[in-house]
Amino acid sequence: MHVLSVLDTIWMLIQNIYIAVRSLHGGPRRRPPVAFAFDIDGVLLRGHTPIPAAFETIKMLEGQNELGVKIPFITLTNGGGVVEDARAKELSSQLNANIKTSQVIQAHTIIKSLVPKYKGKAVLVLGGIGDSVRRVAESYGLDAYTPLDILAWESTFVSIVLHMGAQHSSFSYHLLQNSISPFHTLSEEERSTTRPGNFSTTPIHAVIVFHDPRNWLLDTQIVCDVLQGRYVESSLWEEMKKANPNPVDLIFCNPDLIWRAAFPQPRLGQGGFITAFQAVYQAQFGKTYPFTQYGKPYKDTYDWAKVVLRNQLAEVEQVDVNHVEMPPIYMIGDNPASDIAGANGAGWGSILVHTGVYDPTTGIPPAHTPTHQAKDVGEAMKSMKLRYTLTLTSILKLRYKLDLQSNISAMSVEATRKYAASVSDVLMAMGMIRSHVHRTPVMTSKTADQLATDAQHSGFPVQLVFKCENLQKIGAFKFRGATNAILQILESHPGLDPSSLTVVTHSSGNHAQALAYAARSVGARACIVMPSNATPAKVAAVRGYGALVTLCEPVLTAREETMYRVIEEEKVSHPEQLVEIVPPYDDPRIISGQGTLAVEFLEQAEQIGRPLDVIITPVGGGGMLSGCSLAATGLKPGIKVVGAEPAGSGDAYESFRTKNWVPSVNPQTFCDGLLTSTGKLTFPIILDHVDAICTATEEQIARAMKFVWERMKLVIEPSSAVPLAVVLYSSEFHEAVARWSADRQTGLNIGIVISGGNVNMQTALEIINSVSEK
Fold first, then answer.
1. Does 14 have pLDDT greater than 80?
2. How much is the pTM?
């Protein structure tokens, strides 16, 4: 099978992973990787007109994507004035979608949670036209009245009580027409919508502003009267005040000062009414009235929204709601003061679009900083993790017209069940880090091809392809895993400012530099514990990347003890920081990140006409070998994967040979990047996905290093020379190549990973000069 045909199956691979895993009875389930909340006006619609990108967005969320997965989402708006069912039907019609009632959260939807509190009590509801908000309130189960109901009651000349200043003396009298609101006379149309009531004996217990008030003067006057108890019999009012000096609750549902919709300029909203009302109330009574605020950006609204999303996720995954693990949630909105501020406060991710309230052309930065900005909702979706994968796979699918291997999904399902990482995790990592890392080049050498062919004695030619990770940022492949780990941490904490993250590790070499530089590149802090015998150049490099370096005794126990001490000190000195350990290799995020080089390698080798049959990498802790084996075997079933190790540090070789983990004890090699034992997470992957581990002597490694330096003109570290040494000198490898060539009856294309180029010049020259010409 061609590598190209495997590369293009990435899109089918991910789809099949989801489908196959979901079909396993009692097996693990793949949850949607993200959930969304969308503002409506300014994000999905402008007034009643859909924003074009909204159509594709809704289709993708409803499952029309390469994953075939429905993504939980809600519409979270500060608008309202109608029942949620009606709004859902209207949205469905506008967006050619099937929006459920449960997916519509309006500013007043949370009022449903207050129904038990006000059961059997009258409430005054404001906003909208006529009795529209009363119908909404009644649908929730509230005993609701409107300001027009009070006007209608006034015009029936009901005897009421008038409180006279501080004395609260009262007398009954026939209310004069229009005495409550002198400038508003009920029309016949308005009167037809009113509800009869007697507000002297039926006191109002809460004023709830459901929607934007239309008649500010009328509503302000009546609310002031209600809050002062002016319509209630004095004895009843005094009884109410015994329990609470402010016996009438005041609740606002939408704090938005401005909104825009289809208007060319922002318009005043309910927030404007709140400001005006409190100013009037204070001018009359010397203080503002205490109130409860719902809607965006207030936490209660976001907590309510999260409950709705959790219920959706339980339905999608067919699990009990109590067993749902929430993925990251992203709010996509147009208003920094409500959408972005609320999402940030709730710990969600936030994306600010430029199709509504916020206008980037003013040059004024948003008052609340979003996680991302985008021109519209379509571009916003492309910035998400799900879109990273969909975009990546779509590009590959368009580039190559290829066949699907039927065993890919089964292999991937097995991977998700047994191992710390899977090929889909590698692909997710590739989408995550691709804009942060170098796509390192591949090289060939006719001389190296001839040397490798002569060494095999198989009768078939060998062609080599070198993946030059020595040209990666910080000079080694380690930057991939470190970057993926940091970005994964940030994504798992939506809304976290990178400057509030501190990553910690202990390392003597490339991982220390990689983590330090990766942290600096995103604005995070790094604390690195290094052994006192680390080369001064490496310590200086780590410090140069902005990390705080702590030196310790050069033994593992001291390194670990010092690291945990540093963590505790960081938590005390920087309590606001999120402190995370990023191990050098035994971590799913590291494994997945390192595996991305294999995805690139497969594609690049195909592009130059040498599709890989074998891929060989150095092995120390096993992060690179395990990640590359997952990627290579997942994308190209039948490819052979080989680990290369110094004979003087042969723990991986022995572990693989005996099928039992063997620790590294007193390793004797100048390959200082390969001294560690394989990890508890990396070894099981290696055992099941790698075809062979072969070794080379120090002299053989030195000769391979000399060849690369002198003939290929590449600066590589000793560890990077081990794979070529195995290809040229390992009899075990030669026997394996002979078998594989015989099975295929053709020569092999062997991919060699040059893992890094961080080496002291004096050390490199000593190694190179230690071997004679041969």
1. no
2. 0.56
